[in-house]
Specification:
88% helix
Length: 121
């Protein structure tokens, strides 16, 4: 019984870390978007940040699956994480297509949802 509690705590902390990382990377993308407008290195920073943010979204999915599968708990975190990955995919496509009228509001929505997910943990 103690082993299950320890395993659940470890997965919970990994899930917490993944959500925190995702929230931080989305916030840093907003900062790099501002630099995109004002600094010569802004485009490079925003491009690299997009890859890191997408990786953080994939890590969130992995952490949610690992937290859910062994304990047989609710799959709700997996659905939330998968939704974030879909939003991140749309964000990347909109960024590459240079559609700021959708790219920027989606980024704000993603940040708000990520903060909400972080507050729930």
């Amino acid at each position: 019984m103690a082993t299950q509690a320890t395993t659940a705590q470890r997965h919970f902390s990994f899930l917490q870390m993944a959500i925190t990382l995702q929230t931080l990377t989305i916030f840093l993308q907003a900062v790099s978007a501002g630099l995109l407008l004002t600094a010569s290195y802004g485009e490079t920073l925003h491009s690299v940040g997009a890859r890191v943010m997408y990786g953080a979204s994939m890590l969130y999915v992995l952490a949610a699956v690992l937290a859910w599968k062994p304990g047989g708990g609710s799959p709700r975190p997996v659905w939330h994480a998968s939704g974030f990955l879909v939003l991140a995919s749309a964000q990347v496509v909109l960024g590459i297509a240079h559609i700021p009228s959708l790219h920027l509001p989606l980024g704000v929505l993603m940040f708000g949802l990520s903060v909400l997910a972080l507050a729930r943990r």
